[in-house]
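Our collaborator T.R. sent over the components below with a one-line note: 'Predict the complex.' Nothing else. No constraints on interfaces, no templates requested, no preferences about which chain binds where. So this is a plain run: every listed entity goes in together, and whatever single assembly comes back becomes the starting point for the next discussion.
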Amino acid sequence: MIKADRKTGLVFFPAFDWAIDPTHPEREERLLYTQDQVLEEGLFDIEGITELKPSLVTHEDIRRVHFCAPDIESVTTESHLISAGGAVTVGEAVMSGAVEKGFALVRPPGHHAMRVVHGNRGFCNINIEAIMIENLRAKHGVRRVAIVDTDCHHGDGTQDIYWHDPDTLFISIHQDGRTLYPGTGFMEELGGPNALGTTVNIPLPPLTSDAGYLWIIENVVMPILADFEPELVVNSAGQDNHFSDPLTNMNFSAQGYAALTTMLNPDIAVLEGGYSIEGALPYVNTGIILALAGVDYSGIQEPGFDAARIAEPSHVSAEVRKVGRAVLATWRNREALRAKLVGNHTSVRRRRNIVYDTDMIYEMQIDEVTVCSKCQGALKVDSSCDTGAHLLGVHIPRGVCPACRAKAEAWFDAAKSGPYTLRTLKDLDTGTFFDA
Amino acid sequence: MRVEEGEVVIGPQRLGPAMAFGGTVPTPTDAMVVLNPDGSDGDRSRAEAGMRLLGQALGVETTEAARRVMATMSRAILDHAWDGVAEINGKPVYTIHEMMENYTVAPSEILLMGGPAPALAGYLSDHTDLGVRMVPRWGVANAIGAALARTTSEVTLFADTEKKVILIPEENYATTIPGNYTLADAEETAKNFLTEKAREAGSRTATPEIEIVESMVFNMVRGFRTTGKNIRVRAQIKPGLIEGYGDGLAMEP
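Returned assembly:
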């Protein structure tokens, strides 16, 4: 009888009756072959690996993270509530000590969902990791959290949600945005004025393989994590760096993913993308589960694996190291960089156009954050889009200072006479939410 | 049974029959013999000796020791029953339909059957807000149930319309199918197979009541084209009573 070194809880929710559409990569059978593999390999028979039933998240859970327009019901389905609920279920199991490690194998994914939600972008509606983290912060008093996003696409939604939060370290390792959706995630994207440096982007060139990817984890990600000293490490475990993935151009293997998991040693992993549903997912997921539980995974090999064919060209390895060294240098210089870039501004504005590729929605967004040395700063978001929705969202962070609270409340009141279809206030300091 | 830190501990090892029936260590049966000597043909004096031993360790008299045994036993039985309910309700499901249907078991009454039912009923009532009562013919209800239960079995069928094959792995059965085989065809095949299987297993019903408990069809996509369907059907003979013993069966005491 195989016994897990670490008690590991899995939520497996394949949502066999939900798809974006029948031939979309995010379709019913995406996790079917993974389930077959997990059952055939007898993973649930391993002592110490248990399957947990997901709960559904509440509207309050969603409101801690998102501003939804026109409302939550219009931009979510049951499937999203269960998927986020699965992440929360493993998070709670880890926090309560019922298990040491947790893995939410759920769909649909969430890491492209930003703070404002008008619809689906990059197959995501609501950000399942952020909803889990904010739930754990509200209910278990967790403060410092690190998210390491190993999906092949830039985790632009998670980045957006934690852009202004110095207590959340967000590291995204992905295929270079010049070659892949969503076209962002460059090294220069470092976070807002109160959190400059705690957003870390590591864009890797196409054809990066196990060697380069693991070099980055060992030599860049681990030292940054050690500096940050998080209470909780969450892995957004997308599996589309795999050499067989139909949407991307990387050369990672199942063994590589398992080794990454061992090295990173996350408390919680949450499935994100990965669309090679027969060739990669069953093997990569098995590898991640065994690595989390501390069970030998050396026997896992996916069909079509050929070490020579996916070996990294030397110019790719050189580029990977160049990127890694630059990221690390920026991280170590973040305090000085913040002083220089922020200067004596008292607030900072951004103006952005955001495309919802799945739902074909175009959003125009202007946000403004107070620059504050005492708290994370108050945030105002003005978002309009071609659905006709025009929302004004005000975000009051946990531990807000009196000056920033006063500013936030003044913004909200002043917007009364504005052109908005929805004014929404999110006060994480008191845990209250208000719509007008 | 033994006493640990002032509390009665039952099991988990079984160290032989009750003292009332020739054993050497007191058991819950001894407690029941002590409390209701007319309800048992066990040796009352030996049962009392057992409870006296336990009572000395607990610092109470013999009858009180027996009552404490019954209380401990009742709590343990209820804890296990509620764990069972939690396990059923916590069983993972894999579709939104099942998740939202959210079928939960929520007992509204506790029914007892088996030999110790009358001895236990009152003590169980002390530890639950639910009503507790014995089923009719509680002493033999289990045996009647076993005798009248329908012969049940199940089959799981996998169909792959790209390879044009169906499989029923546990029956070691495989055959070819046309490419236009559908989910309805698969359900029909599974039902026919199950009827035959039940007949071979001794079912005396020509047309057993069959239910489809799982029925799924997935597109198989290669590249960006649908190349076939992956169909999975699980059918079972619905558990119940043998034909002729349905609603009409008199179960009054």
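Summary for T.R.: The radius of gyration of chain B is 26 Å.
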